[in-house]
Write a structure and sequence with these properties.
The chain is α/β, with parallel strands linked by helices. It is built from 15 helices and 14 strands. Bound molecules: adenosine monophosphate. It comes from Deinococcus rufus.
Length: 395
């Protein structure tokens, strides 16, 4: 089923038209800087790029230009369904849902949990409904895959009323990616997913690990928000919960300012004082930049600790899976992480590790060591697959 996959952010829309069974991609695109003078939509079709100026417009202009682009390319009639990436489904959604007025209300109701993302997702869905009124639309949630976590993994040790009245619990994110790479890893290993205990490490701009038991998430490192857990590009990951109060008083910052700094000025960027991009940090560390070295070391140390933590959730680990821009490409981050995971029997095959870059997946562990794979994530394809499944199931 040819599916238009949409990822609507506050000022951008990421687009892909693809067929999930074959993986065929007809067009990809990005509308950026929506609502500003630089608003533009670019569409990439078989290596060719078209750019449309949106005249300062927002979602309606972006979708009108997308429709016109699909018409011009003769692709509009091909689109059979629309799949939306939605960040937070709270406890309301454990599977994708065909969008109805009730579903849209439920997504709105989750906005307090993701104030930056869910309102943008809702606005994108409404604009897409106007642009494509005849097509079925499905919401695929970042949090849904983790709804199988047991209570022992998702509860925080905070007053119970916070959970009951305000939904304060661990939800987890990147679910589409963790679910996809777990399926791919099982396929590559030639074993049924239902029999595997996997730790998946999604390492991109955002980073999280997940314990996947028989294809179901049983724990993950992100929590109430995508700030918990691993060190990320600009996000701190775990810090002392007392830090907000301490730094607000010491530096005279508001809660909003502390939250913004933990999201945008921390992580690899904060530690290194240089960059959030692992490529830049690896190059700088090679030149002797102490901050870059420290940032990478802390990143790897915390990652290895988190992987070991997921082993507790699983009892036994059959394989470790790396994915995301860093996981799929950084030979040194993978090697350093495995070097710290001797406790799990990990050990790298240096040649295999060096080969697994730029879209070349494979097993990178030495014989007899914890099976470790590099798998390419494909969130768009997974969203398209989930969209088809939801429509078939009448969900
Ligand atoms: P993603 O969010 O999955 O697109 O991942 C983006 C991140 O992947 C970038 O910020 C880089 O840190 C990292 N990355 C991409 N390519 C490479 C590479 N060749 N080597 C190391 N890190 C990379």
């Amino acid at each position: 089923m040819w599916t238009l996959v949409l990822n609507c952010g506050s000022s951008s829309v990421k687009v892909a038209l693809l067929e999930p069974d074959t993986g065929a991609v007809a067009v990809t695109g990005l509308a950026e800087r929506l609502g500003t003078a630089g608003a533009a939509l670019r569409l990439d079709v078989s290596g060719e790029r078209r750019v449309v100026d949106l005249g300062g417009g927002s979602y309606p202009a972006a979708f009108a230009a997308l429709l016109a682009g699909l018409d011009e390319l003769g692709l509009r009639a091909q689109v059979q369904a629309i799949g939306h990436r939605v960040v937070h489904g709270g406890e309301a959604f454990s599977v994708p849902a065909t969008i109805t007025p009730e579903v849209l209300d439920a997504i709105r109701a989750c906005s307090a949990l993701a104030p930056l993302h869910n309102p943008a997702n809702v606005a994108g869905i409404e604009a897409a409904q106007q642009a494509f009124p005849a097509l079925p639309q499905v919401a695929v949630f970042d949090t849904a895959f983790h709804q199988t976590m047991p209570e022992v993994a998702y509860r925080y040790a905070v007053p119970e009323a916070w959970y009951r009245q305000h939904g304060v619990r661990r939800y987890g994110f990147h679910g589409t990616s963790h679910a996809w790479v777990a399926q791919e890893a099982a396929r590559m290993l030639g074993r049924p997913l239902t029999e595997l205990n996997l730790v998946t490490a999604h390492l991109g701009n955002g980073c999280s690990v997940c314990a996947v038991q028989g294809g179901r998430s049983v724990d993950t490192s992100m929590g109430l928000t995508p700030l918990e857990g691993l060190v990320m590009g600009t996000r701190s990951g775990d810090v002392d919960p007392g830090l907000h109060d301490f730094i607000a008083r010491q530096a005279g910052l508001s809660l909003d300012q502390v939250t913004a700094a933990l999201n945008r000025e921390s992580g690899l960027l904060g530690l290194s004082g240089l960059a959030s991009d692992v490529r830049e940090l690896e190059a700088a560390a090679g030149r002797g930049h102490a901050g870059a070295r420290l940032a990478l070391d802390v990143f790897v140390y915390r990652l290895a600790q988190a992987v070991a933590g997921m082993a507790v959730a699983l009892g036994q680990v059959d394989a470790l899976v790396f994915t995301g821009g860093i996981g799929e490409n950084s030979v040194t981050v993978r090697a350093a992480t495995l070097a710290r995971l001797g406790v799990l029997g990990a050990g790298v095959d240096d040649d295999a590790n060096a080969r697994a870059v730029r879209g070349t997946p494979g097993v990178i562990s030495a014989p007899g060591r914890l099976t470790t794979l590099v798998v390419n994530t494909d969130e768009e394809r997974m969203i398209a697959r989930e969209t088809a499944r939801a429509l078939e199931a009448g969900a």
